[in-house]
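WARN no homologs supplied; continuing
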Amino acid sequence: MSPESTATRAKAETPQEARNSYRAVLVFPILILLGAIVGYFFAGPVSEGAFLVNPLLGIIMFTMGLTLQPVDFALVVKRPLPVILVVIAQYVIMPLAAVLVCWILQLPGEIAAGVILLGCAPGGTASNVVAYLARGDVALSVAMTSVSTILAPLATPLLTLWLAGQYLPVDAAGMAMSIVQIVLLPVIGGLVVRLLLPKLVKQALPVLPWLSVLTISAVVAFVVSGSADRVIEAGLLVFAAVVLHNGLGLVLGYGVGIALKQPLSIRRTMAVEIGMQNSGLAAGLAATYMNPLAALPGAVFSLWQNMSGALFAAWCRRRDRALLQQEEDATAPSA
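OK structure emitted
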């Protein structure tokens, strides 16, 4: 998609559609923040439900599966290059960026392991919404998220073992099995349900993003409750690490698109897909296989990436307005 076509899409989108989309993305971090507050101030009772983290992650991935269709995977065959590029970048740029962040900030071992696990996670489902807001290639975004998610049972544990093993012991085999159980099987299950009950699923689609974010909020509450005694002590350091990691992903993702001479919409999609992670999965795996403090980067990332995604989308739309104005000035009759 060329810059001109993004400007054309800016013409076609109604103000109400834009407001509704932005409202959804901006409300998401508020709900996640509420989950973190509940987890911190009611740590005792909330921590009793920590065993629910993995089942809740399964629900999130099942809702992702409900949004998928076979055509999403057909796109991998029709347009393999951008998908392959992003998946490679996803599992190269973000893990290495995590290592760089740990080195720059000299993070303690527990937090460093959590940041690296976050960097080794697949793309986040919220990236599809942000790609839409940024006027990226939404169909391609869905395909990229799907492929990186399918590869996660192999890529995430191996990369985490390699890069984070120096900080904390990593049970790569157990982690791989958990990812199969809470990611791969629920996604496949959701896809099958959509194929069998398409009309029912279509009616439920508008509710699914809200169900997903409410579930992520609960996961964040459980994660924060497990490390509530150290949240204040580690909070600023974790926040700095998350902002730097996410920013590197967005900038490098966009830069890779420029270097490979991809169209504007694909550059935006690459930035979003690489910069946004499945932070809920990272938090859940860290809580299960590392320790509660290692899960904190994933919880904070869940909050921050929606805010940064909204800011990135706003920047993209501002650029489109400028392009649209240039078109109108160029076609306007001279006095």
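Residues 3-328 form a domain with the Na+/H+ antiporter like fold fold (CATH 1.20.1530.20).
OK
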